[in-house]
Amino acid sequence: MRIAIVDDSGLRASVLEEGLREAGYDDIHLVTPQGAFVARLERLGPEVVLMDLGSPSRDTLEEMLVVSRALARPIAMFVDQSDETMIGAAIDAGVSAYVVDGLRKERVKAVLDLAIRRFNAFARMQSELEEARTALAERKTIDRAKAILMESRNLSEPDAYALLRTTAMNQGRRIAEVADALITAAGLLGGTP
Amino acid sequence: MTPIALAFLPLADSAILVAAKEKGFAAQAGIALDLVRTTSWATARDRLVYGQVQGAHMLAPLAIAVTLGLSQHPAALAAPFKLNVNGNALTMSSAFAAALDPDPARRLEDPVATAHDFAAAIGLHHRKPVVGVVHRFSSHALMLRYWLAFAGIDPDRDLLLRVLPPSLMAEALRAGEIDGFFVGEPWGSVAVTAGLAEIVAAGTRIWRRGVDKVLAFREDWLEANPELVDRLLLALSQAADWCDDPANRAALAALLARPDYVGEPAERFLPALTGQIVPRIDSAAVDIPDFVLFGREATGFPWRSQAAWIYSQLVRWGFAAPTPESLRKATGVFRSDIYRRALSAAGLPMPGASMKLEGALEVPLAVGSHRGPITLGPDRFFDGRVFDPEDIEGYLRSLKA
């Protein structure tokens, strides 16, 4: 079964490709949705096209599926409209799949299941990465705010942190927000932000 | 607060949805509006059809096409509210535009002459011109076809129509992949400001009151939630009036500019909102006061005759087979009954009919309406043809002749 993966994110495409290869699919082609990608797809003649649901190029792809002469058989989104759970899961995961008519349902379902799992795994990985980045940035902010307090009010590090924490609790805000405000204020007052 | 999720595309004509949320009209109606930004019409359609959102900002012809089963999974959609009238511009590369009238203002003011010039320019171009449209079932693609066919151009033979999302048009033009595009603002003005292209025709000069985007729901959801729909429509109609008030233009432009909405500089929206269209980077603005309408003239009212016009064009270009069943389904997408139910209780003026001749008004006309007059603006097609929804066959015959 020839599968084309159309994705702007090279990383997600590789994650998906790797999963498909592990599952024994070997006729897989990565296509970035730029420039003449439609012509490339026509030459490939895939039986399944997997695409990021959020990709701005989906309208272009669908138009090609309607007018293309290279793809003799009609190709439609998702394979079995009766499987609503699957379609829901695919949309939640951000996967859209275009499948050539006549392909056996179970064969496509296996591919789609895998794509959903990989897309979800990728999204989790992204959000964990994002969380880690935010956490790192917040720790730096809090450290700077502590340093300002330690210097200007002659506090020990634990006391400076305790002060930030108490202020945050009293104001119902996050420590990082209070720290950020303090850095801004110190900057305005001419201290070393 | 009742949560409602609506999908939208980054375009100036998402204005009413953005204003309903940001200016508190939805909240006053007890609705927590969640606007889901999507970059393709296919995704807005799928989120709606498969129930991820309750409603979607949608190309009116696409809502009809989905209902007729012409665009992926068929689903009965219902559009009780139009989000705008007009608002699109045909923008061509400077190289192509050079073969048209040298005065960019005259091109806009005389769409008859420009259509003929366009036909001649196709012959002068070094290859078949590639014109970007956002979808085969977009209002402006149908309008472009209508306009070009007038000058003897067969859009399927003499041009390549390429489908691209609105936000990628300017880049595709820069890369030389397309020679022009017909889309909603601000994307034409974005290409003009970048010095890449010139606005050579405005949708409103092709059809003075051209149907464009609607708010579409799944029909079953719409029928199951009458009270909620009524509240939402009232909030949207207040937002529509707010959007059309000249005093709010700067605020509206600033809202649309936000990265979670359209994400282009606020000044890019002003040509469309003020009707001061700058067709070429160095030229004076051309005054087109009805470039886009949101609230005046009961813009939101979904005239069934306008759905019938869309159906006639789908038949004309071979997208749909002409059957009484298709016509019934297509006009049934425009739910003037729901609009009337939702908004007459609030005492708003309301058209008495649901069908009218399209393109028959030369000058503004006060029409029969419950509770106070409504003035309908001139709605002529540029070629002077009138669409009678009772005689679609005759209309299509006259277009062939």
Topology, element by element:
The complex is a heterodimer of chains A (193) and B (401).
Chain A: E1 3-6, H1 10-22, E2 28-31, H2 37-44, E3 48-52, H3 58-67, E4 75-77, H4 84-93, E5 95-100, H5 105-153, H6 157-171, H7 175-188
Parallel strand pairs in A: 1-2, 1-3
Antiparallel strand pairs in A: 3-5, 4-5
Helix pairs in contact in A: 1-5, 4-5, 5-6, 5-7, 6-7
Chain B: E1 2-8, H1 15-22, H2 25-28, E2 31-37, H3 41-49, E3 55-59, H4 60-67, E4 77-82, E5 85-86, E6 88-93, H5 94-97, H6 104-109, H7 111-124, E7 130-133, H8 139-150, E8 160-163, H9 169-174, E9 180-184, H10 187-193, E10 197-202, H11 203-206, E11 213-218, H12 219-224, H13 226-244, H14 249-257, H15 270-274, E12 276-277, E13 286-287, E14 292-293, H16 304-316, H17 324-333, H18 336-344, E15 350-351, E16 365-367, E17 369-370, E18 374-376, H19 392-400
Parallel strand pairs in B: 1-2, 1-3, 7-8, 7-9
Antiparallel strand pairs in B: 3-11, 4-11, 5-14, 6-9, 6-10, 12-13, 15-17, 16-18
Integer average pLDDT of chain A: 85
Tally of discrete structural domains of chain A = 2
- Tell me the domain tally of chain B: 3
Instruction: Report the sheet-strand fraction of chain A.
Output: 5-15%
Measured by residues with Cβ under 8 Å of the partner chain's Cβ, the largest interface is: A-B, 23 and 25 residues
Helix-strand category of chain B: alpha/beta
In CATH terms, what is the fold-level topology of the largest domain in chain A?
A: D-Maltodextrin-Binding Protein, domain 2
Structure in words:
The complex is a heterodimer of chains A (193) and B (401). Chain A is of the alpha/beta class and 193 residues long. Chain A has two domains: 125 residues, 3-Layer(aba) Sandwich (D-Maltodextrin-Binding Protein, domain 2); 59 residues, Orthogonal Bundle (Arc Repressor Mutant, subunit A). Chain A contains seven helices and five strands. Chain A has a five-stranded mixed β-sheet, with helices on both faces. In chain A, helix 1 links the parallel strand 1 and strand 2. In chain A, helix 1 packs across helix 5. The radius of gyration of chain A is 25 Å and the shape is elongated. The mean pLDDT of chain B is 94. In chain B, strand 7, helix 8 and strand 8 form a beta-alpha-beta unit. Chain B is built from 19 helices and 18 strands. Chain B has three domains: 186 residues, Periplasmic binding protein-like II (D-Maltodextrin-Binding Protein, domain 2, 3-Layer(aba) Sandwich); 147 residues, D-Maltodextrin-Binding Protein, domain 2, CATH 3.40.190.10; 50 residues, no CATH class. Chain B is α/β, with parallel strands linked by helices. The chains are: A alpha/beta (193), B alpha/beta (401).
